[in-house]
Amino acid sequence: MKVKNLNNSSAKTRKLIRDTFIQMLSEKKEINKITVSALTSRANISRATFYLHFDDIYGVVKDFEEELINAFFTNAKLYATDDCEKFFDAIFSFMKENDENYKMVCKSNDVLFSAERLSIVATNKLLELVNNDKRIKNRDHIELDINIFLAGSICEYVKYCRGQSAFTLDDLYIFTKQWYHRFMKERCL
Q1: In sequence order, which residues have a C-beta less than 8 Å from that of residue 65 and are 6 or more positions away?
Q2: Pairwise CA distance, residues 152 & 131, whole Å
Q3: Would 62 be classed as within a structural domain?
Q4: pTM of the model
């Protein structure tokens, strides 16, 4: 963040820039088709004002992604649960609520950083829940099993957001629940 003291006016300007960027992204579908000149013209601000807040368009992208990711990571429902199924319910509920925003972010090839962060957080929380589950007897390769499942799921989610998947978000939710039940059946023997 370039502006150090984010007063009310600065916060409004950053929001205006981000909101204008989101509008343009929904129209153009690709980040590399959005220029600083076009954005500042649409937002009716000067280039100097833009550069007070961001280094370039990718700084706006990062800010937008950070907002979405922080909303996900600070979601109390996700972290308050001590049950895997409730954790999955909370994740998919959040994704549905923010479907359009995530679809816009996922159109960018720069989404890999966000997907990796999401994968790490989800993996850590799921591992914590599974490791605390006394019913699990077979603990061989649990982390590998969860990592592979979540990496594949996130990849499929990005494809869904980009309109490149034959599956819906509801399909991914159902599959996740089925995977978890198979996982637990194999692990609780």
Answers
A1: 105, 110, 111, 113, 114
A2: 21
A3: no
A4: 0.72
